[in-house]
Amino acid sequence: MKTRILNLAVLVVLVALLPAMLHAQMAIRQPLFRVDIPFAFVAGGVHLPAGHYSVYHPGDPYLVVIEKDDGRARAMAYVHPSATSPSESSTKLVFNKYGDQYFLSQVWTEPDREVHQCFRCRAEQTLMAQAGKPRLVVVAAKR
How confident is the model at residue 61, as a pLDDT? Predict the structure, then answer.
């Protein structure tokens, strides 16, 4: 019982410190790219409003952070490299659209020629089971 409480306390402390550590890392890192997203969307299970965003890789190749330029909204999405390398050289975000809801699906980065596939959150999994195959919506990065 004591071990379980201790493990839970350690987990709570780590979760509480994670945003501070990410903020410190992002302060010294440059964004991979900036993008204007014209619709509200979900990334990493977090609802984000339309707006101007910066996309970061905060030192972890399996994590992408998308942050609104005014700093008022941020989400972390766990990703894995796509099985196929991109056939075109572009930097963009790809969203799955179900009705009027958008979910971040892929992050394409031109410099490293990688496609980072986002893991689906529970809400998207539920919609996919109900609605079937989503429509893909592409938003190109700002140059």
Answer: 80
pTM of the model: 0.75
What was the pLDDT predicted at 17? 61
Largest CA distance in the chain: 55
Q: How many CA atoms lie within 13 A of 88 on its CB side?
A: 4
Q: How far is C-alpha 4 from the geometric centre of its chain's CA atoms?
A: 31
Q: What is the spatial distance between Cα 36 and Cα 59, in angstroms, rounded to a whole number?
A: 24
Is residue 50 within 8 A of residue 137, CB to CB? The reply is no
d(CA 1, CA 38): 50
What mean pLDDT comes out for the span 1-24? 64
Domain boundaries, the chain: 1-30, 31-140
pLDDT band with cut points at 50, 70 and 90 for residue 59:
confident
| Cα–Cα distance, 37 to 40 (Å, whole number) | 8
**Rounded CA gap, 6 and 81, in Å?**
35
Question: Using CB atoms within 10 A of its CB, is residue 30 exposed (0-12), middle (13-18) or buried (19+)?
Answer: exposed
Q: Which residue matches tokens 């790219």?
A: 33
